[in-house]
Amino acid sequence: xxxxxxxxxxxxxxxxxxxxxxxxxxxxxxxxxxxxxxxxxxxxxxxxxxxxxxxxxxxxxxxxxxxxxxxxxxxxxxxxxxxxxxxxxxxxxxxxxxxxxxxxxxxxxxxxxxxxxxxxxxxxxxxxxxxxxxxxxxxxxxxxxxxxxxxxxxxxxxxxxxxxxxxxxxxxxxxxxxxxxxxxxxxxxxxxxxxxxxxxxxxxxxxxxxxxxxxxxxxxxxxxxxxxxxxxxxxxxxxxxxxxxxxxxxxxxxxxxxxxxxxxxxxxxxxxxxxxxxxxxxxxxxxxxxxxxxxxxxxxxxxxxxxxxxxxxxxxxxxxxxxxxxxxxxxxxxxxxxxxxxxxxxxxxxxxxxxxxxxxxxxxxxxxxxxxxxxxxxxxxxxxxxxxxxxxxxxxxxxxxxx
Length: 403
Known about the structure:
Helices cover 45% and strands 16% of the residues. It is of the alpha/beta class. It folds into two domains: 2-206 and 381-402, Glycogen Phosphorylase B (Rossmann fold), CATH 3.40.50; 209-378, Rossmann fold (3-Layer(aba) Sandwich), CATH 3.40.50.2000.
């Protein structure tokens, strides 16, 4: 089959959950299908276009600038966003050149399916009714949670405006597209209920079991590890909350406990956490997160803001280390508290769960073993890509293709 795949960026380096999910699915679809990948070529993605042969038959890069959030150019975009009906998280990836290219491809090529990957690619598709939306998150839910946790009144006011824009825009897009593929049953139900769409299916989240499986057993050198892009606001909020609200409670029982914060582009306030505390390490961008997982006792996912599903939980489980998460962190994943994960939402409960695992190596082993058995049975990328492929092509299309 012939697939047009439209996205706001290329997939290397794959440092974000959405990039990893798309990359792993496309790498498995590519041997069986002809994939045409049209996306923005962002300046900071060195090697993105060059490595696209791994997952597509032909790539169509469109140069584009989406300034980093710490830059003056981004703040100019934010101010202009006050007068735009489209939310900033979407409008900064709007490209007339990509839209013209997609229009040309849809008119001149015969595709069996066209995929809009993430909501922020939608402005670059001239006919949304012709595409399947691959919806990694319910984006408005993320912004709603940002508003709920914002402390600064001006910041809360701005976030509320962006949330309201996102609700309207996401609702319009979800109703306009041909079909939607979500990443969890929870997200699918939320879109059906809140946006009134019936054409929503979902494919689960996966993990590369062989890649994350530890090569040898060793004693942990770090007590806690958090992994994730540190330029994503929910991750930064999670780390701040853990360090300020939870870690002091843990240190009443474990005064020397340590934390590694592993992820790209940490803001200055995150870097300052390590400057103020010698037992906190902020790595910035790393080539390989696995050694940090393998050398830690517990993986923490203290998210208070978010949507979709967190790949970092399955990666830790595949690396055979136990996970403590908030309910929002584990949202949408088929996990069970006390069996293969510990879930806690208040600072004291989260601290108690972390402390209990530090106190008991046998408990860590039981939890991590149950988690590994769960992901190894149900969460390989081969299984996930097979589900996605069946949703992408209805049975009658596959039978026609087989003939």
